[in-house]
Amino acid sequence: MYDIQNIQVVHYISQSLRAHKLMKPDVDHIIKDNKIMSIQKSTGRIAVGRKFSNNLHRTLEAKEKVTIQ
Questions:
Q1: pTM
Q2: Domain assignment present for 69
Q3: Is residue 34 within 8 Å of residue 61, measured between CB atoms?
Q4: What is the pLDDT of residue 61?
Q5: Which one, of 69, 2, 66, 68, lies nearest residue 30 by Cα?
Q6: How far is C-alpha 5 from the chain's CA centre?
Q7: Structural domain for 20, as ranges
Q8: Residues near 33 by Cβ (< 8 Å), separated by ≥ 6?
Q9: Does 68 reside within a domain?
Q10: What is the pLDDT of residues 7-53, one digit of tens each?
Q11: Considering its fold, how many domains does the chain have in total?
């Protein structure tokens, strides 16, 4: 599985596990207007216009069953 040919698949699996097990609704992100909005760790405020990187944002959209952008 960890062969160089599968590096992208391993990345997607890793991000999926991170989204499903580590990212908590109302702690790390909220759903507003059918969109995922990230929450700043330091202030607890919604980070308008900020998206999670490395396909994590799309994975969260799939997890929360909102429109994937």
A1: 0.81
A2: no
A3: no
A4: 93
A5: 66
A6: 24
A7: 4-63
A8: none
A9: no
A10: 999 999 999 999 999 999 999 999 999 999 999 988 989 998 899 98
A11: 1
